[in-house]
Amino acid sequence: MKFPSGIAMGFTGARASAAPNSAGRRTNQLFPLRKMCCLLLILLWTPALAAQKFYPDDPLAVDDDRLPIAMPRERSISEVMDFLASTFTLRPKGEVDPAQNVNTLGEVPDSSWFTNRIGRHEMSLEELATGPDRAGPPDLSAPLLITSAKTEGITPGFFIRDARGGRYLIKFDPLRHPRLATSAEVISTKFFHAFGYFVPENYLVNLRRDDLEIGPTAEITTEQGYQRKMHPRDLEKILDQVPWLPDDTVQVLASRLLEGAPLGPFRYHGTRRDDPNDIFPHENRRELRGLRVFAAWLNHDDSRSVNTLDTYLGNDPEGFVRHHLIDFGSTLGSGSIRPQSRRAGHEYMLEWKPMFRAAATFGIWDRPWRSVDYPHADAIGRFEGDFFSPENWKPEYPNPAFERMLPEDAFWATRIVMKFSDEMIRTVVGTGRIPDASAENHLVESLIKRRDKLVRYFLGLVNPLWDFQVADGRLLFNNLGTEAGLASDCRYRFQWMRFDNQTETSTELAESAGIAEQAVLAISASDSPYLMVRIWTDSAGRPEWNQPVDVYLRKTDPGYEVVGIEGQFR
Amino acid sequence: MRKWSFIALLVLFGSHAYGQQESTRAEQLRRQRLEKKSEAEPEEAPLLERAFLLVEETGFANLFALGYKKLYPQIGSIAPRSGLAFGARFSDSDLSQGRLTLQSSAAVSLQGYQLFDFQFGKMPSGGRPAFLSPIAPDNLSADPFNPERHESSRSFLYGDVTFRKQTRVDFFGFENESQLGNRSNFQIRDASIDFVAAAHVRNFFGLALRGGYLDVALSDGRNRALPSTRALPEAAAIPGLFEEQDFLHLTGAAWLDYRDHKTHPHLGGVVFASLTRFSDRDGGRFDFNRFSFDTRQFVPLWSTQRILAFRFLTVLDTADSGAAVPFFLQETLGGSQTLRGFRNFRFRDRNLIYLSAEYRWEPAAAVELALFYDAGKVFFDRSDFEFKHLQKSIGAGIRFKTPDVTFLRLDVGRSREGTLLHFTFGASF
Question: Greater confidence, A30 or A513?
Fold first, then answer.
């Protein structure tokens, strides 16, 4: 059972009755012992009646976490504290609990955090290329009105309003690397949208100088950190720092402001105390644990709290909070303000072992990642697939959710990554408008290599059986490992059992064990409302696949349906 | 008995209702959310996080704004041995729609050092008013532009007015064989009115000009534990010790910069040369020319993790016929930037050569370790321009860096005169 048990909550209610009353006396002093025992027996027995492994609405496709709530206060998260806490205090100690927000099939239900897209249904190339885009890019039929600007940091930016009233954040590339960050951000946005996350609408737009106009109330934050009215000279200075293309335009990223009131970033651990819908500790959310696989694929090394944003949708107090990933400027080969650093994805900012090793050897011992060859392609920065190692990939500093990723979490994410065909990858990369064809090819090929490495590694950790379906009295399934070409000589040992949903016990059915050469099992004859079949995959050279997978079937009118899947992972 | 039966029935009913309430997974989750809703409370960041947030959102430099947005306190050092100094700085870079900057600062140290300055004009971001300053302790700088910003302007021009008082500047005598035991001290007060102009002609090539008026007055040093330089038996032979002098000066400088990174170079180098004319306005007794040459090279050793860094610096002063180079304008060796095993101002004369080599390696992105070897000498006679009889020091250091600056440098230097610890901000070179 992945969701918190109702039995435990029942006991909590029973204990409450023994608390001191307002007069300072214990309530049980009022009860004769015999009567108390009767009461306790009733109390203990009654919730047990309600206990069951599968509920009628399992497997849950949607976790409706949109209970109306009062708007939480906007908050900020200290980057330094996030780094310190993530590096020193939030590392997992001992055994890691399984993810909590999964349904009985091990899937992540749709929620305010995640919407199943390519993982649940086929996506056309057009859908992939469109991604989250709905409103369209800024309307350039009239100058974009700058409402505020920032000069701090190395890359400047504007908030603008277009003729249709659309509000966007305009982000530029670093001066010496035109198209680097903006293209990477658009490509990654499409990927993360297809995975299922909430992301902003990010558009590539080519602007001319006269496409921008300072609004009457536009303010600028100066280098000294204070705000003042924005002057034409400020605009000139900012536009002097951006990479103009030969056609006198500059490629910018127009990021449409997210719907709702911003509430600040979410943390990768704990829950928001002021959001009642937020009941699963974030480090135990499968979509945040599995994000490590996606981040590794796209080299999203900056996947930390500061690059997330919660927004409040609806009218206070009838609205709810939605959780977004934002800012993909440091993905693929881009490091936002320069090509991605060589360290990115290979080592944390602060990692003791290599640090002491390099210090003690006077620098003679060197990190292997320093000597990785990257193509000389300004448009894509540093990205490759040969040296990439899925198991060793790291973000900038430890992420509490990533650190708790278990093989089953990775299996969930890998199943999504597997859905991307070469053609799909090429289509998504095409949305980045990379002008250099060979650089674009390199990017596509690197993504394919990284995808294949991820699949090979993470499917190797679990028994990779999936897509269980009942048809014509048989249980059909797929071996994702053989689909991925990791093995071809698989046989499936199985044992059918009767399953009692109330007591959660299983009893072997007579003469129901066997070995199947194909991924098809005849469902054992039984009048039990629930059946369970335990399946082991035997394949030479794949001992990890010998871990059993339990598949639960529930009797319905036309026959059985798959209601639960559990892997017993080592 | 009836009462307890009633209660039991009530509990049984309630419990069944409870079980019924959770007849679906969705209801179970909803109930958990309703429970949390009844206990929801506003998020409050812990005190430590609030403190960090304040620094991050305000910016460290702006954290201590003195009630007015362009006025900030300053705490630091005015000059070597000044002790801790306290003051304030005003800066407004928004004049004429951001074209012009006005900045001014005032600071006084615990040792009585004083610094007041004022600049106005078209300045680079994070302007360096002391660039090419004619008088110690401002060292030669290889690039007046803020290296990590893409300046919207490739040139600048500003005026600089500075008044400074240093109350206890050490003097050990001239030439390379001066003795540590001959240490004395003097007080120097200087005031200058200068203009500064510079331009980047290409990304790797720059030109600069600085000129103006300099007035200097000397008096007895305030360190009573040491003799005053003016009281030394040979004081009369020290050029410029007793006269109040004023100069017109003009410096022209050029540099080539081909480092891969301006503040944390791993490859390439920089070559800087300048020529300065000092013209004594009181009869020309201290007219002289100065030629400076400063080059730094950075060589990676098969990896950017470890590099060799080299520096060669020479300053050659040539007095006009019958004139002398005032001792307080002579460049010196020793301290945290040069000959790190010796004290500040330890060696002083008309000419100097200085060589430094560092083996630097980076165990982490933000940490640099270094072993260094410094050698140099000062000399009067140009014929001594040779790499013999050099003063030497060795040492090791640890530096903490952000991607753009070295914010803390701890160097330990050892020489025949002992071991010194330098705790400084900024790179060695």
Answer: A513
Contact A358 B18 (CB under 8 A): no
pLDDT for the residue numbered B127: 58
Contact B29 A64 (CB under 8 A): yes
- Interface check for B149 against chain A (CB to CB < 8 A): the answer is yes
CA distance A162 to A168: 8
Q: Which member of A55, A76, A224 has the closest CB to residue B91?
A: A224
Judged by a CB distance cut-off of 8 A, whether residue A226 touches chain B is: yes
Q: Is residue A284 within 8 Å of A101, Cβ to Cβ?
A: yes
Which pLDDT value is given to residue A503? 94
Q: What is the DSSP letter of A57?
A: T
Rounded to two decimals, the pTM is: 0.85
Contacting A residues, span 347-366, partner chain B, CB-CB under 8 Å: 349-351, 354-359, 362-364, 366
| Interface residue B419 vs chain A (CB under 8 A) | no
Q: Residue B79: what residue type? A: A
Q: What pLDDT score does B210 carry?
A: 93
CA dihedral sign, ordered A447, A448, A453, A454? positive
Q: Using CA atoms, how far apart are residues A180 and A337, in angstroms rounded to an integer?
A: 9
Nearest CA in chain B to A75: B43
Question: Residue B417 gets which letter from DSSP?
Answer: T
CA dihedral A17, A18, A19, A23 (to 10 degrees): 90
Other CB atoms within 10 Å distance of the CB of residue A394: 20
H helices of A17-112, in order, are 33-50, 79-84
Residue A163's alpha-carbon distances to A134, A138, A167, A232, in angstroms, are 17, 8, 10, 20
CB A346 within 8 A of CB A406: no
The β-bridge partners of A387 are none
Integer Rg of chain A from CA: 27
The first and second tokens of residue B327, run together, are: 């001792």
CA distance B58 to chain A (A): 7
Number of neighbouring beta carbons within 10 Å of residue B49: 19
Assess B304–A contact: CB distance below 8 Å, yes or no.
Answer: yes
Residue A108, pLDDT above cutoff 90: yes
Return the sign of the alpha-carbon dihedral for residues A235, A237, A242, A245.
positive
Put simply, the answer to whether A67 touches B33 (Cβ < 8 Å) is: yes
Complex prediction ipTM: 0.88
| pLDDT class of B142 with cuts at 50, 70, 90 | very low
Strands B268-280 and B245-257: antiparallel
Chain B contact present for A33, CB below 8 A: no
Neighbours of A342 (CB within 10 A): 18
The residue with tokens 């009797």 is: A555
CB-nearest partner of B94 from A64, A228, A367: A228
Q: Which residues of A touch B9 (CB under 8 A)?
A: none
Output phi, psi for B278, to 5 deg.
Answer: -105, 125
Q: Which chain B residues contact residue A4 at CB under 8 A?
A: 28, 32
Residue type, A526: S
Q: With 0-12 CB in 10 A as exposed, 13-18 as middle and 19+ as buried, what is A261?
A: middle
- Nearest residue in chain A measured CA to CA from B5: A35
The number of residues in chain A equals 570
Residue A18 in 3-state DSSP?
A: coil
Predicted pLDDT at B68: 63
Interchain pair A13, B18: CB under 8 A: yes
Taking an 8 Å cut-off on Cβ atoms, the answer to whether B304 and A371 are in contact is no
Q: Does B19 touch chain A if contact means CB atoms closer than 8 Å?
A: yes
In what order do the strands lie in the sheet containing A320-325? A261-264, A308-313, A320-325
Give A367's contacts in chain B (Cβ within 8 Å): 305
Q: Looking at beta carbons, which residues of chain A come within 8 Å of B366?
A: 349-350
Q: What residues have CB less than 8 Å from A5, skipping those under 6 apart?
A: A51
Coil vs helix vs strand at B406: strand
